Amino acid sequence: MLISPDAEKLARPTAPMASVEERKVRGKALREKVPHERHAEYPPSSNRADPVAILEEQAKTRLPFLVPIRYARMLASPFAFLRGSAAVMAADLARTSVTGLTVQACGDMHVANFGVYASAERNLVFGINDFDETLPGAWEWDLKRLAASAVVVARFHGADKVLCEEAARATVRSYRKNMRKYAKMRNLDLWYSRIDEQGILAALSPEVREVAERVMAKARKRGHMQVLEKMAALVDSKHRIVEVAPLIVRETRTQDGRSVAEALAHTLDIYINSLPDERRTLLARYRIVDVARKVVGVGSVGTRCWVALMSGNGPDDPLFLQYKEAQPSVLAPYSETPRWECEGKRVVVGQRLIQGSPDIFLGWGTQPNGGHFYIRQLRDMKGGVEFDPKRVNQLPEYCKLCGWALALAHAKSGDPAAIAGYLGKSDGMDEAVARFAAAYAEQTDRDYDALVKAAKEKRIRVAKTAN
Fold this sequence. Notes:
Blueprint: H1 20-33, H2 51-59, H3 67-74, H4 78-84, H5 86-93, E1 102-105, E2 114-118, E3 124-128, E4 135-138, H6 139-156, H7 161-183, H8 187-191, H9 197-202, H10 206-221, H11 224-231, E5 232-235, E6 238-241, E7 248-249, H12 260-272, H13 277-283, E8 287-294, E9 305-312, E10 314-325, H14 343-355, E11 363-366, E12 372-377, H15 395-413, H16 416-423, H17 428-456
Antiparallel strand pairs: 1-4, 2-3, 5-6, 7-8, 8-9, 9-10, 10-12, 11-12
Helix pairs in contact: 1-16, 4-6, 4-17, 6-7, 6-15, 6-17, 7-15, 7-16, 7-17
């Protein structure tokens, strides 16, 4: 793909002149072209690419000494494999039926990529929390990957077939019903919509509500002071990030020979130009105290990630910023969107469009060596669900929240009336995607087994520990 001066314009639809009902009718008409039943199909291609080869190709752009940690984390379970193999599923989804309606897709949609986080007003909201792969694309891709992940995690935790199917159906049903609600809303009301604490609790049964309250109580404590206590220690009366090799390592030189301090100062100079003026003023009140390389996530392992400890108005005023390398989206080979001049900006703009309450320090830049990056706060009242086999029966309720959050993200970036018209009021789409999810869970098991085999045959190198 060639870089275009217009590449940084999202492929969102032009403000529609047609009424909500007219757009619903247009969406409904698409069922003639792509019936709901078509979404149940997952016929593995006879020339399907080797999933391990796809991961090996990705590894070529990663730090080679960290790639074995990525494989170790992916080998933890089929769900961990799914989390780390968005590129594999993107290739499979590109072969499935779509309506042609476009949204700002997450690109790496699964049940662990949601959580609560703090809005700028310091209120907790629920939504998508990973945008590394975001790009304009088919709404069906996100929905199918999300439903498949529900089945994969349910199976891993011992759920029977009935519960697995209900988790997938709950995801799609919630997406469908909330999309109809968003289709009727005024544009500004939709833009300002959030899934807040009250909305989360109201949507859950009393049993699950107790779990949600604990998650949110924990999230409120997860601020910069908590990170300081967990990640740093006093050394000669100064806070320093504690090394936990190979996951958190303080390095003195970058790969191109510059001092880390020099490189970070230059990086912040580039990054700060992406911030609004008022955020620049706020950030200028902090000074760099320490920096370390940090391994994060599953699919991201091996990309260049750093954490900077900054200090503001005294030692009890810390700010942790996280630097993440931004590579092209896994959806890029299957999207008609031109390449972005800065992949970090792609991530930030996509997040601002579909998350609703993004980090106030979210920004981007391009390094002198051509590397793309974005920066955000390391932790700001963020919390997520830990999947527990003892509570696997509660998974459908959690999936309902995930489907709701995905509908909100897609409604903000696409045409909710057209999508709602296509989905309709019946459960046809729920059943179809649930069948796809079950079939793709089987595919995930086979792909996971292929990675296990590659490890046993020493085709890939696996770290002894992933933590």
